[in-house]
Amino acid sequence: MFDMRYHIASLVAVFFALAIGILLGTVIVDKGVLVDQQKSIVKRIETSFDEIRTENQRLRTEVANEKRLSNQLIQLAIKDRLKGGNIVVLTTTDVSDDVIESIMDNIRKAGATSNNIRIVDSYRVTEQTISQVQQYFTVRLTADNAKQVMIKKLIDDLAQSTESTTTPNRNMVYKVPYIVQIKNMGIIKTDITNSAPPRPVTGAVIVGGANSEMNPFETDLAIIEQLKALRIRVVGVETSSCKKSYMKTYQATGIPTVDNIDQPAGMISMIFALAWTDGNFGTKSTAQRLLPLSAQQ
């Protein structure tokens, strides 16, 4: 006969089986709910992504339209402002070639011709350097004065000035013009060639503002000083995003400045400043206003 322990064991087994069945049934039901919930979430995410893609496309179209409008407004604002001029763009920092090309393009749209010269910051004046360029100078070059004297000679030649004190004889003809010589030596990079020498500059843009540790006192101030001495209009510019601003250094020399040359407003300000509108323009704390007053009328 079956004893009480057998009955208890049987009942426990039955209840245990029921518990397992209920648990499995619950899991299966829950699994179906979870699948439905997952499908619903995925659908909502897909819908959100579609909306985001649509919005991004709309914004891209708006930005493209705004850019076209800005370019058209720039051309209207600057047209013929520099007509007949010849502007040199002098670069002393690590600003991108795209920025330089944009500056030159807008100068041309304003009716002027333009050349660019990038002074190579890594170049160091040596005894060999001095021996290669000494023929172009009346003063004796030394390690202490060579860099500044060479910069002044560069500006003199760009201006084709009769007031130069650095050239032995303004009528002397060299086998290689000074600008081409220092280009060949790697001191500068420029689009000026021996076969197409530039005509005298009527204005200059000095592009500063650095993304690395560079010193505007070493080169930029010598350039500005010589341009001012020769009564050539000079405007100091930099991008809105450069890490090290040169604006205060430039402004201390009394020249007009533009701190957002990478923006449409900055391009307009630069052209107006080259056309003898004084002031400090841009978006940084060193600026007096965004645009010249004459450009806002």
CATH class of the largest domain: Alpha Beta
Shape: elongated
In CATH, what is the homologous superfamily of the largest domain? Cobalamin-binding domain
User: What is the overall pLDDT average?
Assistant: 86
**What is the total number of structural domains?**
2
Number of helices: 9
> Over the alpha carbons, how many angstroms does the gyration radius reach?
35 Å
Q: Strand order, main sheet: write it out.
A: 3-2-1-4-5-6-7
User: Structural class, from secondary structure content?
Assistant: alpha/beta
User: Strand count, sense and closure of the main sheet?
Assistant: 7 strands, mixed
Instruction: Measure the end-to-end span.
Output: 114 Å
CATH architecture of the largest domain: 3-Layer(aba) Sandwich
Helix content: 40-55%
Beta-strand residue fraction: 5-15%
Descriptive overview:
The protein has 297 residues and is of the alpha/beta class. It folds into two domains: 1-78; 84-296, Cobalamin-binding domain (Rossmann fold). The protein has nine helices and seven strands; from the N terminus they run αβαβαααββαβαβαβα. It has helices spanning 4-78, 97-109, 127-133, 146-159, 178-184, 220-229, 247-251, 264-274, 293-296; strands at residues 86-91, 113-119, 188-190, 203-207, 233-237, 257-258, 280-281. A seven-stranded mixed β-sheet has the order 3-2-1-4-5-6-7, sandwiched between helices. Helix 1 runs parallel beside helix 8 (264-274) and helix 4 crosses helix 6. The longest helix has 75 residues, at 4-78. The radius of gyration is 35 Å and the shape is elongated. The mean pLDDT is 86.
